[in-house]
Amino acid sequence: MSQLYPFTDPVAAQQRAPTAIVRGQGCFVEDDTGRRYLDAVAGLWCAALGFDDARLTAAATRQYETLAYYHSFMGRTPAIANQLSERLGSLLPAPLSHLIYGCSGSDAVDTAVKLVRYYQNARGRPDKKRIVAREGAYHGSGALSAGLTAMAYCHDGFDVRDGGVLRTGRPHYYADAQPGESEVAFAKRRAKELDALIRTHDAGTIAAFIGEPAMGAGGVILPPDGYWAEIQDVLARHDILLIADETITGFGRSGEWFGCQTYGISPDLMTMAKQLSAAYFPISAVAMSAAVHQAVAQQAHRLGTFGHGFTYGGHPVGAAIALEALAIYEEMDLPAHVSRLGALLDPHLERIASHPAVGDVRRVGLLAGVELRDDTALGAEFGRRVVDEAERRGVLFRPIGNVVAISPPYTIGSDEIAFMIRVLGESLDTVAGAGAALAAVLAS
Length: 444
Ligand SMILES: Cc1ncc(COP(=O)(O)O)c(C=O)c1O
Fold this sequence. Notes:
Layout: H1 10-15, E1 21-25, E2 28-31, E3 36-39, H2 42-45, H3 54-66, H4 79-91, E4 96-102, H5 105-122, E5 130-134, H6 145-148, E6 165-168, H7 173-176, H8 183-201, E7 206-211, H9 227-237, E8 241-245, H10 259-263, E9 269-272, E10 284-289, H11 290-303, H12 316-332, H13 334-353, E11 358-364, E12 367-372, H14 382-392, E13 395-396, E14 398-400, E15 403-406, H15 414-432, H16 436-441
Parallel strand pairs: 3-13, 5-6, 5-7, 7-8, 8-9
Antiparallel strand pairs: 1-2, 2-3, 4-10, 9-10, 11-12, 12-15, 14-15
This protein binds pyridoxal-5'-phosphate.
């Protein structure tokens, strides 16, 4: 029996099996042939504390020895899940006041959408149900979350139902701004387009807008100046809820505890996963405002119960690991620590930005994207080729079209940062060619 691997061409996987990873040490992983790689994306933007943190392992062991499992259904809950809720309550931005646990970013997004529907029904607004999502969005692989995701390959062949989803433009200044348009003007244009979309489809049919504070899988797209303030103004005018999908940005990635703080976002609901447990346990959560919670609670009381939840939601081992991860983040002074690492990255990125094959370099916190030029002879293959070359040289990046994503563990050191970006530069030179060779590669 072999696996059907996610986001992998199954036929290609039969010819060339995925690299089997057997061990982790700090920011490095090792495959079954003994090759070591620095993981510049922390796995899937999630292993914030590297791959062998002893404190997280000890926290898991202690919890397994105390209470290895309990659920939160029908009048019981692991005490440690309550402790985690208390702890998150002290970190989460206003106006979030209640939360529910799950096991993945995808199920958190599905839960958020179901909560939004429940809320609108509770308010007597059964027609107000559609969700606005953006081009370039990734919100997961669940039945609802895949519909919110914009990538065609997440829909094709699956009959994903996205009939209720309205699509609006992504905040990609480098790729989508008009010549001479400032960031602020571009942000205003995106907000105007959103306003027009809402008016066309009638605000009375639209429940919520979902957005990643900074977009990850769509190509590390960072919002331009003023974007979130403009978007929130439009949503407030039309009585539309805001779901912040913090699956990637949550817990320090953007240089604050949450992307919402980096960008001045006041969400009605927030999804979080990945770095909540530094990826050492599949745990997620959806936080909601007191207003959403109150309407949902009253509706559930009328109906007799809140009929939603997962067997492993609020798992005690996940809660124990998350509490320990939060303790480590706090000891690190997370926002200051991530900002310091981001500043260390900058001079290296500046050198990469000066490469003639590079179109744009962007960074917030410890999340960066290097966008390669689309107009080279390598076309859309450029990013993949550079990332393959870097892998041969011992660094794992993630290609997103022609964007090379960088999102290393927070435990990365300055020498490792230098190594990571040196390998990126060498890989660029090898694939694109330097100097005269590059001129031949560049079509324009
Ligand atoms: C913004 C966002 N939402 C949701 C998800 C889905 O998370 P999961 O793979 O844990 O289901 C991801 C995964 O990368 C993500 O980036």
